[in-house]
Write a structure and sequence with these properties.
Bound molecules: flavin-adenine dinucleotide
InterPro entries: FAD-dep_OxRdtase, FAD/NAD-bd_sf, MTOX
Order of helices and strands: EHEEHEEHEHEEHEEEEHEEEEEHEEEH
Cofactor: FAD
CATH topology of the largest domain: FAD/NAD(P)-binding domain
Catalytic activity: L-pipecolate + O2 = L-1-piperideine-6-carboxylate + H2O2 + H(+); sarcosine + O2 + H2O = formaldehyde + glycine + H2O2
Radius of gyration: 21 Å
Distance between the termini: 34 Å
Largest sheet: 9 strands, mixed
GO molecular function: flavin adenine dinucleotide binding; L-pipecolate oxidase activity; sarcosine oxidase activity
Enzyme class: oxidoreductase
Shape: globular
Length: 387
Amino acid sequence: MSSRDFDCIVIGAGIQGSFTAYHLAKNGKKALLLEQFFLPHSRGSSHGQTRIIRKAYEQDFYTHMMEECFQLWAQLESEAGVKLYRRTGLLLMGPEKGREFQLFKSTMERNRLPTVTLGPADFSQHIPNVNRNPGDGAFVDTTAGVLYADRALRAAQEVFRSLGGVIMDGEKVVDIKPGPLVSVTTASGVYRAKSLVITAGPWANTLLSHTHLHLPLQVVKINVCYWRERTPGAYSAGNRFPCFIHVEAEGAGHHIYGLPSNEYPGLMKVCYHMGSETDPDDRDRQMDRGDIDILSRYITRHFPGLVPVPAVLESCMYTVTPDHHFVLDRHPSHSNIIIGAGFSGHGFKFGPIVGKVLCELALGQVPSYDLSPFKIQRFSSHSKSAL
Ligand SMILES: Cc1cc2nc3c(=O)[nH]c(=O)nc-3n(C[C@H](O)[C@H](O)[C@H](O)COP(=O)(O)OP(=O)(O)OC[C@H]3O[C@@H](n4cnc5c(N)ncnc54)[C@H](O)[C@@H]3O)c2cc1C
């Protein structure tokens, strides 16, 4: 094998591509991870200090994947010798009789997950400084917590390298030629491999266009807002404040979620789970602040201990599918091209499992999980010609 020939090439060194490369190397494969920007960077979806990890989901198939996922995160922690997870619990709130709250609650019950239900009487004792809506139900997924995202991404890449994996950053892929050996062209030359995994985040369709496939993906810019605590530490992880998700919050349209103050002392991250459409190469031109207005009103009403004007504003992108479920599948016309895309703003926690199943698909193995919810075929009514 020449230095340009690999068992597998992975395009995109976000969390999904980095974990795919990690699993390929663990399987003894010669793998190349290509990244358009110099690492680390903040122009995709995997940067930033924190993400929520939880088992609470509306669908069993996500909850089932999280069981092994927690173990794989712990394994990476011990391999890299760094702390990646802090248990805080996750408070789930929403109209008690509403569809979404009930879906979350019944998944927790069906799977017998450790849950603490908070009635109106004990809510303020456990969750101080939060105004609960009169009709809202609330429970805590006690195993949930915070993942240290930047650290986790670095750790997966370091373990991959330590196993002999090759990372080429600052190498944008400009062409893909499918075939029994797939050719991938960057400004530095052409690489070949028996299989290719595309985990390009918001750029998925740009890359897939070289293979004549277009997926119904919407790229949106997320305003990542941090809000100042009136009393520093009031909503901190140190004071045992949990992560939270508020579903169907006063007709906001999408979830509002938050993480306890931790990474920036005195500031709590509270975000709106949707944004405005953007071009990933031009995202700073998207200046829509409608989500920030929704959050300011929400914070005034529910978090009286926060100043309702964002103190820090960062940005990130979601790549959203019509049903908000991932794409984990083979290319419909080229079985040795594997696609991991459309993580719809909730994919980080699944990185170790996504990487595992994309690696299995790339090696022609039977995937460890039923991937039917993630098949490209489900979009056939959206874009028949493209499929
Ligand atoms: C504000 C925010 C909050 C979130 N909160 C949570 C949370 O609490 N919990 C959770 O589980 N998830 C969360 N997510 C979602 C999660 O972060 C994403 O699902 C995940 O990071 C997606 O990773 P990715 O590897 O698919 O994409 P990316 O991280 O975007 O990686 C794709 C990579 O491909 C590279 N690339 C693209 N084109 C090319 C090319 N032509 N050549 C070479 N390289 C290329 C890009 O530069 C990029 O590095 C959040 C996301 C955001 C934005």
